[in-house]
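As a warm-up, study this chain.
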Amino acid sequence: MQDEQPTFKVTDRRLFNADGTPRDLPPDEKAESPFAAVAAEPTQPPQAATPPKEPVEPLSESSDDLEVEEALEDDAHDPTSFVSFIMSIASTAASALGMMEHPVTHQRDVDLELGKHWIDVIGMLEKKTQGNLSKQEKKLVEGLLSDLRMQYVSLANAAQKPRTFSGKDITGGK
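Now compare it with the structure written out below.
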């Protein structure tokens, strides 16, 4: 038998804390965020030819994840791509859920009803495009929906006030 234990690196990719507030991400994790492509404006126009990248095997990501990121980066610069469309809807939902600052007021306002609406729109698009998306697009939509739904649930649970009970509740109103 081998006594060697495999080593794992666990990375918390959630964009929010348990109480629903946005999590402060270290600079190296901000690049991995699904909303990083929306928040970051390209500093220079995309070039026609890019030099080939050497394959690097990170600890926490598989080669499939790298292919997904590379394919999505190519589509992110095309304003008419499905990726850009989904990212624009997801950024609107994230803004409504307080995950992003308002560009004018620089405040994080929460509108649960509007956030739920945009989450439902992305869910509808996921359902209607089932079987027609590439592997990369499918993973993107699933990841965005997962993050947005978790944020919505945490905010909805935090917004509920605890119910107070009275003697009438215990005795059945008598």
